[in-house]
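User: Can you help me understand a structure? I only have the sequence.
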Amino acid sequence: MANFILRRALVAVPVLLGVTLLVFSILQLIPGDPAQILLFGSSPTPQAVENLRHQLGLNDPFLVQYGHYLARLLRGDLGYSYVSQNSVASEIASRLPSTVDLTFAGMLVALLIGAPLGVIAGLRPGSIVDKLATGVAVLGIAIPYFWLALLLVLFFAVKLHVLPSLGTGSPSALILPAVSLGWGFAAIIARLLRNSIIEVYERPFMLVARAKGLSGRTLLLRHAIRNSAASTLTIVGLQFGYMLAGAVAVEVIFGRPGLGSFLVSRIQSKDVPAIQGIVLLVAFAYLAVNLVVDVLQGVLDPRVRRSWAQ
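Assistant: Let's start by predicting it. Here is the structure, written out as tokens:
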């Protein structure tokens, strides 16, 4: 297992390198001069702008700038914000807990809603419960999370006054953002788990298990769910990156001081180092989660464990 984890981690290295190159290249094409942004409001002279460009290394060739950027990343230095003049790492660290709370709360909502619906629908395909779960899945996929967020605010905060719509002052303030973020992913999990369970019950080994007299509960827990969990875990890992991206819009709507609202404000002010730092953090988190999912797949699926030894 250690060799497998090491191989997977080494594969992630060129991916991260490609992300750094792509992000660095694209952000260099953003209209506007970072030096003029930093000096905005001070009526800078052309000479002052040129001096600052030289100080920031903006006059160096592209490859030289990229090399300096990689060297800073290897030291754990994400640079300094053009707007606040603070370290990008410290700016991100102060906002990361809010985004992590929202992301995991949204994932928890998705699992708590999607997993039971998928299991029940898979056990009784074609039943009323299956049709209800399918309807929920269709609505969850069709309704954008930002529009659902507005509906939840209108109903629970404005009409009923039972849940807060803004801020992070209490645990209840996390409910509406988590539901609006996790509902669509719950639909995906439910649909995938339903189809997977139906497929498992049609396999020959399940017929043999029934012939041995195993109870329905044993069939479900030891065979159906365990064999379906591997494919579901893959989707959960892939959806984690989308969950982080969805947190951007949700945080803005609910006024949460996380990475999403921070990224939006920095895009508006063309704060290149801050944008680069957030994108790299999301890419790293996405790769890390998928590595964990690969390991869990090996624990649940013997076929994956056998492939590790090859």
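Now, to help you interpret it: Residues 93-258 form a domain with the MetI-like fold fold (CATH 1.10.3720.10). The chain has a mean pLDDT of 78. Let me know which part you'd like to focus on.
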